[in-house]
From TrEMBL:
Keyword Endoplasmic reticulum annotated: no
Domain GFO/IDH/MocA-like oxidoreductase: 151-261
Family: Belongs to the Gfo/Idh/MocA family.
Protein source organism: Rouxiella sp. WC2420
Protein name per its UniProtKB record: Gfo/Idh/MocA family protein
Domain Gfo/Idh/MocA-like oxidoreductase N-terminal residue range list: 21-137
Signal sequence residues: none
Superkingdom field: Bacteria
PANTHER family referenced in this protein's UniProt entry, alphabetically: OXIDOREDUCTASES, TRANS-1,2-DIHYDROBENZENE-1,2-DIOL DEHYDROGENASE
GO molecular function: nucleotide binding; oxidoreductase activity
Gene3D superfamilies in alphabetical order: Dihydrodipicolinate Reductase, domain 2, NAD(P)-binding Rossmann-like Domain
Length: 342
């Protein structure tokens, strides 16, 4: 039998369609390199300034990406009148302070995930952005990928019925000297890797009514792996796992009453997914796997939102970021994970 369903087209605009904004980069590291390269290649956005922990680092990054202004401090960059929007990719514990400085300077802000390191900080940024009338968004790139726009439409069209269960996994192996192993940087698998499965579950099934978690500590003291069960409204459940001890398949399942979506690993990145009905008939969405080029979609989305006069993303609103962080906070309490965030 044939699966009588046609996958919808992605509604994601091409990056070059977004109006140009002038960007400043705070934190010229590994992630910023890939973000800037993708945005420069695929959009009309302009990188105007960069600030690093030292002027030398900022100048080196600026030369590599033809960014005209380099600064040795956050304060100097956010004072630059030639910067419209700031992209923040510093270590997790500094996201809140850097974003707050940019907001108070009247800049629109895109912060790498996690937006902050606890829900209280997320609320603080949300309030500040509203007060200063600037756009604030978490750089959860998954939400802006064309494949996830198609997945959202598949669910909205009822192709798999009512969503009942989420199963998601994200694991990678890290050496002991990697920054994810450092407690002072809010390291551990939960915030870096685990935020992807938790964000998927809370987006699709909402605020959990119960959070259960079991974890293992890495030799450096950070959370090494965690298994998480969330019970949502109506008894729906999410079963999530994350680890920094091993590479795992990184797949996800969105299971409904009339079928399910199986997302190939790494589920949060560009790649394939398959829609099955209850007769096990399948239709497949195909896309080249894991391309950092796709980091540009979130920048183009932000620029379009700003041009439209919006202060939050309709795709990844701060309410979604807050729900993810509230859930991560609950998991931290279950596992006894403590950051320097009190």
């Amino acid at each position: 039998m044939k699966f009588h369903y046609t996958l919808p087209e992605a509604r994601t605009p091409v990056g070059s369609a977004a109006p140009a904004l002038r960007w400043g980069v705070i934190g010229p590291g590994w992630v910023a390199e890939r973000f800037v390269a993708a945005v420069q290649k695929n959009t009309r956005q302009i990188f105007q300034a960069v600030a690093g922990s030292s002027l030398d680092k900022a100048e080196s990054f600026g030369r590599r990406f033809a960014i005209p202004s380099a600064y040795g401090s956050v304060e100097e960059l956010v004072a630059d009148s030639q910067v419209d929007v700031v992209y923040i990719s510093t270590p997790h514990p500094t996201h809140y302070a850097c974003a707050l400085k940019a907001i108070r300077a009247g800049k629109h802000v895109l912060v790498e995930k996690p937006l902050a390191i606890n829900a209280e900080q997320v609320r603080g940024l949300q309030e500040a952005a509203r007060e200063h009338r600037v756009f604030l968004m978490e750089a959860m790139w998954t939400a802006f990928l064309p494949k996830f726009d198609v997945i959202r439409q598949v669910i909205e069209q009822g192709a798999i019925g009512e969503v009942r269960t989420i199963i998601a996994d994200h694991g990678e192996f890290f050496e002991q000297d990697h920054r994810i192993m450092r407690p002072e940087l809010a390291g551990g698998t939960l915030m870096d890797l685990g935020s992807y499965p938790v964000a998927l579950a809370t987006k699709l099934l909402g605020k959990p009514e119960q959070v259960l978690a079991s974890g293992q500590t890495a030799p450096t003291g950070v959370n090494g792996q965690a298994s998480i069960v969330l019970r949502h409204s109506g008894g729906n459940q999410s079963s999530l796992h994350t680890t920094l001890f091993s590479h795992t398949p990184g797949t996800a399942v969105i299971a409904g009453s009339e079928g399910y979506i199986f997302i190939d690993g790494m589920f949060y990145a560009p790649g394939n997914f398959h829609v099955y009905n209850n007769d096990k008939q399948k239709i497949t969405y195909e896309q080249p796997k894991y391309s950092y080029d796709s980091l540009h979609y979130q920048a183009a989305h932000l620029a379009t939102c700003v041009a439209d006069g919006l202060l939050e993303s309709p795709i990844r609103p701060i309410a979604d970021s807050l729900l993810t962080m509230e859930t991560l906070d609950q998991v931290r309490r279950e596992l006894g994970i403590v950051f320097n965030d009190l």
